[in-house]
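[Automated response] Your request has been received and processed.

Submitted sequence:
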Amino acid sequence: MTPIKQMWEQLKFVSDCSSLTEDEIKTIVPILKEEVLAREVKRMRYLLQRSGIKRIKLIEEFDWKFNPRLARNEIMGFSESAWLTESKNLVLIGPSGVGKSHLASALCYKAIQKGIPTAFITCFDLVNKLKRSTNKVTMLQYYSTVKLLCVDELGYVFPTQEQANDIFQIISKRSEIASTIVTTNLIPSQWGKIFETSTATAILDRLSLNGIFVTCEGRSYRSKK
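Generated structure:
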């Protein structure tokens, strides 16, 4: 497929470009490139606005030297893999301040740059949204199907049994269909502190299926400031 035909289809023009002369193609190609770029920028802004990301974080900005014990190779290997198309999950475990949220947010932003719908939300906000929603079914459906979901700061909120079941339903429905990132201060054996044992086991089971758990250790980046 020629470049102009690719752009023609990408812009969803109804007419046929095969009748264009070489001179017409030379004239119109730069215009089409600008239009394609403008639409990509507009879509990325829209996805970023809807994502819930409050501040853009980049993996390239992450200070690995401050915490050399972090599993850099494992995290970067995941980032550079086809984790989105393969619906892989990532659970980042560690104490507050070691960079879990930065890394998770950066992965989400990287997905947005590829045009992938993303939702980044703290567990606290997710629980409150579900609690206050006038149409919980629609909200559950959204978080269950968005291409990439990041639940940040799991472990700082103690959900009710109903709220825990909602979280499980979201994670369960996403299993093997869409990627999920979770950041938490609790190792898997401690998830029973915030969920009933059976619910914790079920959630961990869904996340571990086609997923990896990475422990983040080291000093708090907040101590640098």
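Summary generated for your ticket: The first strand starts at residue 89 and ends at 93. The chain is about 45% helix and 10% strand.
If you did not submit this request, please reply to this message.
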